[in-house]
Every structure is written in C-alpha cells, then in structure tokens.
C-alpha cells in the first residue's frame, strides 16, 4: 500500500478504462482489504443493507462483459454519449472525445478485467417510489471508499452503470435474489502508468451557491 496523502488519493482517483492490466491477477485478499475499508462508510440509520458481489470466475466475467458491451454500444450511439457533448466548445470537446474513446475501449474489455465488483442493496419489499436518494446514499459512499482504497494499492477502477439497462440479465448470471438491487459495476485491475493527476473541472465559483441560489 502506497503512502499517499488523503488529498492525493481524493484528487487522483480517476476512472481507469484503457490502462487496466488485463493480464495481471488480483489477489482476492487485496479486494477484501478494500471492501473492509468500504464498510466504514456512513450508512443511514446504521442499517448496513449493502451487499457486495465480487466476480472472479472467467465465464461469469465474460457473460457480464457481453451484457456490458451491448449496453455500452447503445449508449455510444445515443445523443447523450460523452463524445457528443459540448461540441461547441473546442477545448472541452477534446476532453469529451478522449472520454468517449476510453468508454468504447472498456466496452470491449470489461469481460477480461480480472475482478468485477458490484455494490448492491438488499431491500425487502422492493424499491420505494419517489426520491430514492436516502436509500442509495447509504451505499454509494461505501462504493467510492472501495475505489479510493483500491487506488492506494495500485489498483485502477471505474464507476460504471450502463449495464443497469439490462440489470435483470446480470442478476440472472450471478443468481441474485429478487430483493438485491445493483448500484454499479466496478472493474478492478492493476493499472499501467503512474501519471494520474487531478482532472480539469469547472471553477468552484461557477457551481457554488452560499445561503441562496
């Protein structure tokens, strides 16, 4: 585990898609370490309804990869695809094109990534109608903590949700009970290259509102 400052971990944990090492195995013990850290994240009313599916089996990874590829190609053809956004801003469009390219690359390799992690919620009686922010807010911080912990151990990850268009198919592959709902699909592998740095972002003052809008 590298001795990185908290600020360095928080600002250099990037979505790794093209630079995942598909040939280097990931020891399940390392994934367990990251998940143990993730379980320290806040959970509403301390319910801890989270469930974590870690997929290492080659056939299951390939099957999930097939579903993800189909969903991703549909996304890449849609008007909301990364490469089609901000077309009128040359600087930002260039960044979007790089993101688009990396998304497309992951579509073709997801099934080969050594470890796939699916954070889930187990909710009796089905998901509630209306705003579900409070419900998912008891899982997503833990998933992000997992990704941060992975970063300190030389592992790259990416937050993906495109497969949720076919959530039931992935549930069937994994044999998930009907009351277990997936939040994301996080490919996990050692990465190649070490030049991760903070990403371009809007200036804070363009998005900050103090006291009132």
Automatic annotation (TrEMBL):
The protein, known as: Nitroreductase
SUPFAM superfamilies per the UniProt record, alphabetical: FMN-dependent nitroreductase-like
Gene Ontology MF: a single term: oxidoreductase activity
The organism's place on the tree of life at top rank: Bacteria
Database matches in Pfam families: Nitroreductase (PF00881)
Keywords: Oxidoreductase
Domain Nitroreductase: 12-181
Family to which the UniProt record says this protein belongs: Belongs to the nitroreductase family.
């Amino acid at each position: 585990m590298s001795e990185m400052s908290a600020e360095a971990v928080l600002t250099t944990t990037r979505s790794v898609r093209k630079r995942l090492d598909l040939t280097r195995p990931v020891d399940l013990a390392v994934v367990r370490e990251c998940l143990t850290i993730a379980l320290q994240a806040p959970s509403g009313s301390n319910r801890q309804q989270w469930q974590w599916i870690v997929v290492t089996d080659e056939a299951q990874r390939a099957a999930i990869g097939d579903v993800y590829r189909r969903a991703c190609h549909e996304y890449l053809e849609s008007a909301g695809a990364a490469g089609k956004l901000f077309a009128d801003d040359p600087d930002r469009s260039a960044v979007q094109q790089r993101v688009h390219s990396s998304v497309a690359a992951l579509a073709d390799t997801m099934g080969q990534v050594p470890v796939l992690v699916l954070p889930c919620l187990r909710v009796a009686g089905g998901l509630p109608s209306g705003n579900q922010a409070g419900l998912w807010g008891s899982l997503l911080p833990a998933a992000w903590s997992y990704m941060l912990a992975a970063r300190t151990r030389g592992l790259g990850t990416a937050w993906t949700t495109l497969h949720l268009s076919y959530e039931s198919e992935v549930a069937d592959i994994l044999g998930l009970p009907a009351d277990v709902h997936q939040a994301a699909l996080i490919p996990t592998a050692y990465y190649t290259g070490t030049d991760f740095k903070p990403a371009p972002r809007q200036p804070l003052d363009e998005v900050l509102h103090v006291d009132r809008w």
